[in-house]
Structure formats: C-alpha cells, structure tokens
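[scheduler] slot 2 assigned
[scheduler] job type: sequence-to-structure, two independent chains
[scheduler] chain ordering preserved from manifest
[runner] begin chain α
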Amino acid sequence: MAPAHDPPSPASQEHAVAKPLVGPLSALDLARKIDAGGITPAGVVELCAEAIAAREPEVRAFAALDVARARARAEAAVAMLSAAPLRGLPVGVKDIFDTADLPTAYGSPVYAGHRPAADAALVSMLRRAGGLLLGKTVTTQFAFMDAGDTRNPHDPAHTPGGSSSGSAAAVAAGMLPVAIGTQTGGSVVRPGAYCGVAAYKPSYRMLPMVGCKCFSWSLDTAGLFAAGIIDVAFAAAALTGRDLRVDRVAPAAPRIGLARTHIWPEASPAMQAAVELAARRAQTAGATVVEIKLPPVFEDAFRAHAAIQDHEVHRALAYEYDTHRERLGPHLKAHLAAAVDITPEAYDDARRVAKRARHALADLMGEVDVLLTPSAPGAAPRGLESTGQSIFNRMWTLMGTPCINVPGVYDESGLPLGVQVVGRFGRDRAALEAALFVERAVAPASGA
C-alpha cells in the first residue's frame, strides 16, 4: 500500500491546530482523588452542581435533574461508593433509557411526564457499578433529527450535534465527568466531535439496550462520553467489568490505515487537515500509517445503512406514528412516511450487503489495527435547527465496530474538530489504546 499522504500544504495546515483540552472534568483524575482521600463522591457532586448552576441556563443539557437525590446518596453511602468501580461519580443518561426515579420522555411530547416502572438494564449496571445518576440528558425526539434545546458549550450559536446532544454538551461543559448516549447513525461520535470530548461507541451489543427506546434494533448501540480517552476507557471498564482501561501503561504504536472513503470530498478543508494532522503526528510518534483503499462493497454498505435503519424504525415507532402522528417532529414524521416504501426484499438485500461488507472489513483489518477517518464533515454547524450530518459514521455503525472520537484538534475559530478511530469488532481495548496514542500524538498536553 502507498504511504500516507504528505503533510498538507501551509495553506491547509492553518485550518487545523492542536491545543490541550480545557473545561471537562476528568473521570479518571476524580477517581484517583477519591482513592487518595482528596475528595469524596459528595464533593464531586458539588463540583457538578456548581458547574450546572453556572452553565446549564445557557447550555440546556438536561431533560431532568435530581442533584439533591445524588447528594443524599453520596453522603449516605460514602464508603461503599468510594470502593465501587465508578467511585460514586455522577453520570448523566440520555433520555431514551428508562429510569424508575426520573421521568423518561424520549425527547417527545407524546411521553411528557412518563415514569417507567423499572430502570433500563444499562442504568441498573450504572447503579451497581457505583455511579450516581445525576440527571437525564437531552435527546433529539426519539433520537432522530428534530433538534432539542441543547447548545454547544464552545459557542451557543452552534449545534452540539445529536442525537446524544445533552450527554456530549454536559461533559464538555464540566457538568458531568461521564455521560451515556446512543448511536444509530452517528449520534455518539459526531456530538463528541462537535463538543470536543472523547466519545466511545463500543462494538455492537457490548452494552445492553434492554429498556432503551428502540429506533433500529440492528444498529442502536449505547456509548459513553468523557473528557479524554483515558477517562472514557476508565468509565467503560468500571461500567462493564471488562479490561478496557488504557491508562496504566504507555500505548503501543498502532498500525493505522488512513481511510479517506468515497465521501472524503464531503469533509471540509479543516476536517481533512485535522485527519492528516493526526496521521502525520501519529506517524512521527512511531505509528505505522498507510493509505487504505476500501473495496466497492463499502459504498454499497453506506447506502444499505439507510434501508436497514428506515425499514426498522417504521416498525419500532409504529405506535407513535399510527396514534400520535401530529405530535411527531417534522423530520421524523416525513422520514417515517417515506420509510413505508422500503420493501422487505430491499431490507433483506441491504442486510446481505452489510454482511458482505463486514467480512471485507475483517479481511482489511488483518493488515492494520485501526482506521483513521473524520468524525464529522467539519466543525459544528452554526444554528440550532440541524444536528449535523452522520455521513462519516453510518457505515462504521453498520459494521458494528468500536468507534472513538479523539478530541484535541480545533479549527481556526476555536471550534473542535474530532478525528475518528475505527477498530476491529470485539477488539475494543486495542481500539481505545490506539485512540489514546493518536490523542497524545495530536495534543500531548491532554495525556495523563
């Protein structure tokens, strides 16, 4: 294979610059301070409460909050929480996961005031791991494209992305050290990129979706947000009990495939420069970087994602569409109306295409450890009507592979530009380790 492209010209380099992360609370740093007795879980709740008081009126990241309950729990069970995997850290959960003690509206007026009888499986895992549920974070309506009220913490005139808008924005604004979201197209990686935080979409089915409002059962995947790669890996390890932490030893130099894909021209000059900057700096730091040309089946898979998603959502939201159509957002209502034309035959054909592409990707990943691609077409768009495009995420969601937004690069206006690391299915720790390598190569001050 040909080597990675030469560094971009000076004219394109000035579109992407590296600077250290600022603002978010480090989950790993807080856990270490709890271990050392430097702070208690209740003290961390107070840090979050102070940030919420200062930033929430502008950012609007929460659909429901219960700081008092989290504070009382932290004070009553300090010893137990401090010894638990998540150390009593406050966590926000996207408002499409059922919670027994907080309302769950799925971002829709159809379910305003809805109180589920039980927690979603992932929420129960969170509690068992010693996490404190601080609040429900804003989602777009039924996790689709009709935007909510959340603003980008870097500039409130810009979208935070979606559909996990509140989760990404709350972490970026320092209101939470950890938050949970979901991705069906690009709803974890893209808002992570727009808000400048680490975002981790695990391998498909690693995290349970029982008790989460379904959009597309073949694609919906739970994910995590935190300040940096070591933080999101720590949170994932604590939540799942898996060996996912990457902070204990220096990451090995990975073999990186620079994957421009057939939609590379859709990326802004700044985003293209950001990916090339990350590849160049990773190579300088010792990584092997090669140019990857994806076979034509991936273009077919890119198109197959829409057929699979839309055929399934027409069934997953059948009740809402049939009985509350007038209360659905305009984007969702139009999408569901169009989805009726996707035949079972077209759906089955799309699933076969996806299977062929997954086999092709497994063969391709025998030559590299991870792929490096854009996390989004560019920085967060101005305006709150759109949550941006998921074109650089959909195919990888369909593949079921771990995908991680690596923060640390900004455009010349100061808005974040995320680069995406795509790993092999089921090799999540290796993907997180490679993402940490890239993060430290791009912005060394962000590594711990």
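[runner] end chain α
[runner] begin chain β
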Amino acid sequence: MHRYALLALVPAALARVGTHVARDGVTTTLPRSSGATATSAPITVRAGQSYDGQMKNYDRSPRVCSEQDETGEDDAMFVLEDGATLSNVIIGPNQAEGVHCKGTCTLVNVWFEDVCEDAITLKQSDGTSKIIGGGAFHADDKVVQFNGFGTVQIQDFFASDYGKIVRSCGNCDNNGRARHVVIDGVVAVDGGVLCGINTNYGDTCRISNSCQDDGKSCDRYEGNNNGDEPKKIGSGPDGNFCTVTGLTESC
C-alpha cells in the first residue's frame, strides 16, 4: 500500500472514535475504544496480509505481563509475519510483548495503553518497517526494540512516560550489521532520548520535525554481541551517526 494511502487511514480512524488531534496531526491522547477483545494467545497476521482492529482494545487473558522481565513472542498481543500490516488497534496492559514483527511490517494508528516489557519488537533481516501514527504510554524502558536489521521509519507518533522511543539492540548475539532509524513528526514527553544506536556497527538515527520536551535526541553506544551491557559513548547529534533538524522542546 502506498505511504499516503496508509496515512489516510489515521484521521479516518480517529474521526470514528472522536479523538482530539493536536500538534500538526499528532494525537496526544489515547483514543476511545470501540469495544474489547481478550485472547489467551497472540493474534498472528500472516505474511503480506492486513489486520484492521476497528479501534477495539486488544489484551491478553489471563495476564502475562511480568513488568520488565524478558519473555518472548508467545506473550505478545500480535505477531506480524513478513510484510504484514496492523492498523487501528489499542493494546491493553495485560500482554507482555506488544507487537512482534518477524519480518518487515507496517503499523498504522496502533496504540499501547500501558507498555509492559517493550511495545514493538522488530526482527526483520533487512528492509524497512514503518510505524505511522499511534502512540505509547508508560514504557519503563523501550517503546521499540530493534533486534533485526535494515530500517525503521517512525512518523507522527506520540509517547508519554517512557525510557527510549527506539533502541538498536546493544548486545544481541547477532550484532555486527547496521540498523537505521528515521524519526519524523514524533512528539515525546516525560521520557528519555528518541533513539539509542550502536555507532561501531554503523547505525544511524535521523530525526526531523519532532519534539522531545527536554531536547533529548540520541544516545550513542558501543554495541557488542556477547551479552555485556553496552558502553555509552556520547549523547546528542554528532553530524554523522545522529543527525537532527527541527527538534523542539515545546511539545
């Protein structure tokens, strides 16, 4: 589906639930749900298929969230196979792993009411995943955990009370290739940096037209593949690995 066709889904969905849209089209409040669905296992969206949640709240029952304990794909709410699209859903607090993308994926107007471990985990081997619209609340650590490779584009997304918007995996055993993060039109408040990257692997983060209420843009790390805690080597734009244009603190 063409990028602009995907973007057109966002205001249409928000109009259905009467959500207020603020700051250049970025919605800063959790949409009202149109109903509720609870499952005991993840919902799988097959390769190349689309799933429109019609703005319902989706959650796990029984609860599988163990706060910051790492679990896995079995405790996600949605599992997206390569090329799948998920749109117009609100994900509740009882799941543990939010959305797992096994290949490239597209998320349009996907909301996380209360992030448990991570909201979105990307495991693609290459290519580009897109997160368009939507938002996340109360993420103690990361909103997007980028374990695969290639590129993730995050556009018109809102986050409140979070650790990082996206983190390139700092100590995965498959590390050794570059990951690229493109952030545009994101609004983030009461949290940390927009991206964390591993410069020794050639990771990049490009931020434009966004707001972080403390001006926190990028943390740079020296990643590894042995599981050790990665060493932080710098913060802020460096004109090479992390580039920033149009970042404000007035959110």
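[runner] end chain β
[qc] chain β: The chain has one domain: 3-248.
[scheduler] slot 2 released
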